[in-house]
Design a protein that fits this description.
Strand order of the largest sheet: 3-1-2-4-5-6
Distance between the termini: 74 Å
Number of strands: 6
Shape: globular
Order of helices and strands: EEEEHEE
Length: 137
């Protein structure tokens, strides 16, 4: 009896994308006149690709991704860019805070998707200058 063994190998391109693991909560922001339902990013996976594809974490009560108004990325020194695709998950985003990153430059194009953003804070980063046309759009 002969046994034939076939190996089928599928070549699938590796797809890496950013994932946020969030701690959700209502946080007071005086500049936005009250509290804002916020995702505080606990961990970020796949830092090589700037495109956010999912966010995990336990929402509070009846809150959902649609009710998230703020994203706070804190002490992620390995982060060298503003993640793209956040608005696809949190379409009502009005506040983005990135504090403690390794972002060095801003061209302005990374802000194209944030048309409803009212508050952008990038602090404790390596940005040396900001182009004068950054907020021209």
């Amino acid at each position: 009896m002969k046994i034939l063994i076939f190996c089928l190998i599928a070549l699938v391109p590796s797809i890496s994308a950013v994932t946020f693991d969030c701690l959700y909560g209502n946080f007071a922001y005086a500049a936005l006149n009250g509290s804002v339902y916020t995702c505080i990013v606990q961990t970020i996976t796949q830092l090589e690709d700037p495109n956010l594809t999912s966010a995990t974490g336990q929402h509070i009560g009846l809150k959902t991704d649609l009710t998230v108004k703020g994203v706070f990325i804190w002490n992620k020194y390995e982060l060298t860019y503003i993640p793209q695709g956040i608005m696809k998950i949190y379409s009502g985003l009005v506040r983005l805070k990135i504090s403690g990153s390794s972002i060095e430059t801003l061209s302005g194009h990374e802000l194209d998707e944030y048309v409803y953003l009212k508050w952008l804070e990038i602090s404790y980063s390596n940005i040396a200058s900001i182009p004068s046309t950054l907020f021209a759009r």
